Amino acid sequence: MLQKAKRLFLHTVALAFLVTASAQQPSVVHSRIGQTDQSDDGSVRLTLLHKFQSFSTAERETYDADIRSPKSVNIHPSGSKFYVNSLEGFKTVVYEMLTWRKLKVINHTFDDRHQSLWAPASGLFPFTHYNAERRSLNNFNGKPVEGTFSHDGRYFWVPYYRRSYDINAQDPSAMAVIDTRTDTIIRLFETGPLPKMVACSHDGRTIAVSHWGDNTVATLDISSDQPSDWHYTQLYTVDYRLRLDFPLDQSVDRDNGSGYALRGTVFSPDDRYLLVGCMGGSGGIAVVDLQEQQYLGRLLGMRANVRHLVVVGDTLYLSSNAAGVIQRKALSELLDAARQMQGKTATVGGWEECQVMSGARTIELSPSGRFVFAACNGGSRLCVADTRLMRMVCSTAVDSYPVGLDISQDGAYVIVTSQGHSAAGGGNAVNIFSVEYAEPEVTQQPVEEPMPADTATADTTRQSQPATDATPPFSLFGLTLPTLLLIVGGAALLIVLLVLLARKKS
Predict the structure, then answer these.
(1) Residue 481: pLDDT above 80?
(2) pLDDT band at 163 (very low <50, low <70, confident <90, very high)
(3) Is 73 in contact with 416 (CB distance < 8 Å)?
(4) Using an 8 Å Cβ cutoff, are 410 and 432 in contact?
(5) What are the CA-CA distances from residue 247 to residues 129, 186, 416 (Å)?
(6) How many other C-beta atoms lie within 10 A of the C-beta of residue 451?
């Protein structure tokens, strides 16, 4: 009995060591084309139709060298094609829906030949570390992060995480405007440091870009049909503007410790208010009154680490990255609290929530609003929650570190991007799922299909250190590290008790 207890104790210690080691080197997950998962009640069914990846040249059918740490994906409103922002490849890759054929590779590399693309300087974003005397400021590679469409899908807006020479993302970055008829860049705008999220108002007259790097949000007037008329209108500061004074020859971690780390950005249905998720700092949701051109303050009371926001009718949904949770609240209640705010914060309770999996990043809802899809980074899963029950009903494996997600207007397809992970490997993939519903989804009429783009060949990729929103939370068999350690600790305590009991009997 005593020897058996000792062996069990040694096995427990070994398991604890493996768990700790795994936390430093998360296991890599790969999805399989044809895999199918569905909810217990059969209400929703997911099937992996196709994928693109750059982690294995042996898998020729899916290999695509242009997929270098893909950060986001946007399906064109026509449903005819989709855009993948390949962060570390400095490219936006365009694919045709259903055939999965590559249509175009848009390179975000600029030099003196592209000067005519730049909009006039707004005066909002001064350079403080780099200057024209030291280098040509508009010669750089841009790291595409997120995207949004405007003018009924005619234009696609893509902000850059940073200009390639600005190793610590502390000077102005930039944002490209792509004409989706030809899939070429037709305009470039300066931005603040480290822009991550961009959104278009419902009336199509305003673009908002949130700067992760210094706690600011900028708006542009795009009401004209002429890109030459578009211009910045306002720069809002969320509480305080972050001071940026990092070295020019040594990189620092700008994904953490960057103030409020502004992320998810949405307009209220009437376009009067702008809501911005705060992934860092003391968190919350920042609210801007666009009509009064005034920052109102931050709403608190939801989970910390707010990553993505979606508004459907009078309901705001959010993803909490650290908790692996989706929450929702009536938008009208939130806006009432913002208008009555005393000081710069107000706490709003009573949030409904649904547990999905660790690292809940981008979320989107099905056309009817019945289901919410979540890219769960730490769990390496695409999760589906039923909004009637506020409960996860289905999940399926995705290549490690899913981060971006979009759903087609008819709800029939969900595309997920998996960002690269330099320390643990994995990622560098795009997963395309079909979605079947037991009850028909209410769909919207797609916009007019854009002119087809010419097929283009890929350029040689350039590899650099991938950037992430936050360190992916560790999980094993769907359990978080604290839970696993609690289980191991409990087992160890039980074995110690067994050893003491055996000694007493002997």
Answers:
(1) no
(2) very high
(3) yes
(4) no
(5) 9, 33, 35
(6) 9
Question: Which residue's entry shows tokens 């350029």?
Answer: 459
pLDDT for 7 beyond 70: no
Cα–Cα distance measured from residue 277 to residue 268, given in angstroms and rounded to the nearest whole number? 14
CA distances for 501 relative to 1, 5, 13, 494, angstroms: 10, 10, 20, 11
As a whole number of angstroms, the distance between CA 394 and CA 376 comes to 13
Q: Tell me how far CA of residue 270 lies from CA of 128, 204, 364, 426, 487, in angstroms.
A: 37, 12, 20, 42, 50
Angle at 456 between CA 400 and CA 419, to 5 degrees: 15
Encoded amino acid at 425, one letter: G
The sign of the dihedral angle between the CA atoms of 429, 434, 437, 443 is: positive
Give me the pLDDT at residue 6, please: 41
Give the residue among 290, 392, 311 at the shortest CA–CA distance from 39. Answer: 392
CA distance between the termini of the chain: 10
Cα 160 from chain centroid (whole Å)? 14
Q: What b/e sequence results for 282-304 when a residue is b if at least 16 CB atoms lie within 10 Å of its CB, and e otherwise?
A: ebbbbbbbbeeeebbbbbbbbbb
Please state the φ and ψ torsions of residue 383, each to the nearest 5 degrees.
Answer: -105, 145
Beta bridge partners of 416: 405, 431
pTM of structure: 0.85
Task: Give DSSP secondary structure letters for 298-326.
Answer: EEESS-SSEEEEEEETTEEEEEETTTTEE
Whether 427 and 418 have beta carbons less than 8 Å apart is answered as yes
Is pLDDT of 404 > 80? yes
Strand pairing report for 206-211 and 371-376: unpaired
Among residues of the chain, what percentage have pLDDT more than 90? 79
Q: Where are the domains of the chain?
A: 108-267
What are the C-alpha distances in Å from 344 to residues 122, 239, 287, 294, 501? 28, 8, 10, 12, 60
pLDDT over 70 at 19, yes or no? no
Give the span between the Cα atoms of 41 and 165, in whole angstroms: 53
Residue 47 backbone phi and psi in degrees, to 5 = -135, 130
Instruction: Give how far the C-alpha of residue 504 lies from the chain's centroid of Cα atoms, to the nearest Å.
Output: 58
Q: From CA 162, how far away is CA 169, in angstroms rounded?
A: 5
The torsion angle over the Cα atoms of residues 402, 408, 413 and 418, rounded to 10 degrees, is -10
Where b means 16+ CB within 10 Å and e means fewer, 174-199 reads bbbbbbbeebebebbbbbbbbbbbbb
